[in-house]
Amino acid sequence: MALAVLGIPPGCSDNRAKDTGTKPVDETIAKTNWELVALDGAQVPTTKPAAATISFGRDGSIGGTAACNEGGSPMRWHQGRFAISPNVNTVPLPIFTAMRCLDDASSELGNRFWNRMMTAQTWVRDGRTLKIGFKDGRTASLRLLPPPIAVDAQLPAGDRLALVGSGSGEGISDRQLIAMFGQALAQGAPLTEAKAVCLGFQGAQDNGMRDAPAFVIKLLAPSIGLPVLPASECSMDTVPRNAATREQAVLYTVKVEHLGDAITFMATAVFGNLGVKGTQYRLRSLRGGGFAAEPTGLTVLS
After folding, report:
1. Average pLDDT in the 272-286 region?
2. Alpha helices for 61-127 (secondary structure H)
3. Which has more confidence, 207 or 239?
4. Does residue 300 or residue 102 have the better pLDDT?
5. Coarse DSSP helix, strand, coil percentages of the chain, rounded to the nearest 5 percent
6. C-beta separation of 20 from 83 below 8 A
7. Rounded to whole angstroms, how far apart are CA atoms 260 and 181?
8. Which of 50, 125, 133, 278 has a Cα at 20 to 30 A from 142?
9. Contact indicator for 246, 233 with CB cutoff of 8 Å
10. Model pLDDT, residue 59
11. 277 to 113, 193, 268, 290: CA distances (angstroms)
12. What's residue 155's pLDDT?
């Protein structure tokens, strides 16, 4: 895969101090992933893939994406500040893969964000919002993304679950189910107003939505940053809500549409009556026991 060095803005390379070796210590940002929502005071359009994402390693490293490309920056984070890694002796440039992305505007925004990151000085986290401050006083705002679901996560005893309706002997493996809910979460991060996440499942022979399996809820709960509830504990008016507290929520669902050598399913995020995003996928087995969810081209937006 080819790599590209993003352009360096004029006058941005002379005013940065080397990292003094301070170790990253703030657990509120370590191992988190964020999506760019505003840059230099302007909102960033929502696209798939996002214009830019940024991830923070536990060791202070910084990686992420610029549209469809992946890469990282020699900047490092610690104690609310950014600095250049001490082992960088030349002008530090973000390095990314060099694929041509379909959305040119999204690519331009992503590249601009990562070029701005070369002058990043401070970061402040406020719940699910992250603000990055640059040397010229301008800022970027980002929202917290759900963590990816590890396919090798601890699973309950027994490999298969009967999840396709009463009277059917067919089943779906735990890892298949994890891969499917991972795609549901990928439909969009919870809005700032959301105080909970609800998970629902509909098997191929089910007449209606049921609760997501308890082990999926247990697996996601520690890392998603919000209470995770079964669908039966949520209600729907104009938006999904925690039925007990009436606080706003987001409903993520998986609906199995076809069983066979390749499972076809719809992964959906419901933010409100006029805020729904769904994508149909075909689940393909990989060598080593994993699964790849491939979009079929069918999407639902409202």
Report:
1. 84
2. 104-116
3. 239
4. 300
5. 15, 40, 45
6. yes
7. 19
8. 278
9. no
10. 84
11. 26, 17, 6, 25
12. 42
CATH class of 3-144: mainly beta
Q: How many residues does the chain have?
A: 302
Cα–Cα distance for residue pair 145/182, rounded to 1 Å: 12
Dig out the tokens for 22 from the structure. 């301070």
Residue 108 token pair:
């331009």
- In contact, 139 and 133? CB cutoff 8 Å: yes
What's the one-letter identity of residue 253? T
- In the chain, domain spans: 3-144, 160-301
Rg of the chain (C-alpha set): 21
Structure tokens at 17: 């101090």
pLDDT tens-digit series, residues 59-95: 888 888 888 888 888 888 888 888 876 655 555 567 7
Highest mean pLDDT among 80-94, 149-163, 267-281: 267-281
Residue 192 near residue 185 (C-beta atoms within 8 A): no
Decide: 6 and 96 in contact? Cβ < 8 Å. Answer: yes
The token pair that represents 93 in the structure block: 């440039």
Burial category of 177 from C-beta neighbours within 10 Å (exposed 0-12, middle 13-18, buried 19 and up): buried
Let me know the angle formed at the C-alpha of 127 by 115 and 234, rounded to the nearest 5 degrees: 125
For the chain, give the mean pLDDT.
78
CA distance 18 to 9: 19
On whether the CB atoms of residues 148 and 287 are closer than 8 A, the answer is no
Q: Residue for token digits 């705002």?
A: 141
Question: In 3-state terms, what secondary structure has residue 144?
Answer: strand
Residue whose pair of structure tokens reads 């352009």 in the numeric block? 7
Q: Which two tokens mark 109? A: 């925004």
Cα(237)–Cα(272) distance, integer angstroms: 8
